[in-house]
Amino acid sequence: MNAFGAASSDAPLKQLTIHRRTPQPSDVEIDILYCGVCHSDLHTVRNDWGGTIYPAVPGHEIVGKVTQVGSAVSKFRVGDTVGVGCMVDSCRTCGSCQQDLEQFCLNGFTGTYNSKDQYLSTPTYGGYAERIVVDEHFVLRVPSNLDPAAVAPLLCAGITTWSPLRHWKVQEGSRVAVIGLGGLGHMAIKLAKGLGASVTLFSRSEGKIEDAHQLGADEVIISTDAAQMKSVKGKFDLIIDTVPYVHDINPYVGALKINGTLVLVGYLGKLDPMLNSVPMVMGRKSVAGSVIGGIAETQEMLDFCGKHNIVSDIELIRMQDINTAYERMLKSDVKYRFVIDMASWR
Q1: What is the rounded distance in angstroms from the CA atom of residue 307 to the CA atom of residue 63?
Q2: What is the distance, to the nearest Å, from the Cα of residue 257 to the centroid of all Cα atoms in its chain?
Q3: Would you call 77 exposed, middle or buried from its count of C-beta atoms within 10 A (0-12, 13-18, 19+)?
Q4: 222 φ, ψ to 5°?
Q5: How far apart are CA 126 and CA 327, in angstroms?
Q6: Could you read off the pLDDT of 165-201 as tens digits, one per residue?
Q7: Which of the following CATH numbers is that of domain 159-289: 3.40.50.300, 3.40.50.720, 3.40.50.11540, 3.30.1490.20?
Q8: What's the chain's average pLDDT?
Q9: 2-156+293-344: CATH homologous superfamily?
Q10: How many helices (H) and strands (E) does the chain have?
Q11: Which single residue of 2, 242, 315, 329 could bond 266 by disulfide (Cβ 3.0 to 4.6 Å)?
């Protein structure tokens, strides 16, 4: 089938041909309608993290229609609108998988792209393609009342921020702060607000204030303003840090309440400068990390979004414009997630 991918780290994405496995008894074949564009797509294509398998076909925010189901499939029928996120398989037997935490599979989950298909032992290819074949356990039901294009980013940006909100038990009356207003940050604001929390955005730019309020933030704190930072000392139960590059998190730790947690969801790598443990020790404050969520938790998030009419703010693009979209994404020139309209390509 046709797909868009890159042959090397310095090559532009272009149309190519890939092969999917023939649907097995537990498989669902999906005609891809929309695919969100994630920073992880760009990092993988350009081998920023190392280990990219070429040709690389990204895309793990997939929404489409079921076109075929295997003989053992019980959850889905032809014609259903469904989603596929960042995982397409896991061992399903380890302690993590048994707790519905497939994202922490002790044997390593199978990524939607740049991983190994457990049936064919060939690379997995993502959603920048016409169709995909996925085991039904890793297929998600999309609420019928939501715009399917705007649902696509929920399958990565949405669950990446929902999982810490749920793990740290955010509820009505909780005080939550979000660092950074991008694809992840805008979803963190919407979801935290949907759970009934008071939500604050930390931003370096005053230009984000109006947008943050429109998304549901109750307050915006300019992180470069010492007086404003001092005004929120000891205020927050949870801070979700969505910033994808090296930055100093020490000023934000001071904004946590006693027993509060700052959770990193956007940055992978060493902290620089080093983390100062004094405010942590003196206030039993924590710095933690989180990544996506299990399949059950992802379905919970989609159902919650269906109930509360929450979707991502998106800009639809043509598949042919993906290279331009990558360059714009590097400049944060998108509000707040690109989504590929596959109909424009066919």
Answers
A1: 19
A2: 27
A3: exposed
A4: -80, 115
A5: 20
A6: 999 999 999 999 999 999 999 999 999 999 999 999 9
A7: 3.40.50.720
A8: 95
A9: Medium-chain alcohol dehydrogenases, catalytic domain (3.90.180.10)
A10: 11, 17
A11: 242
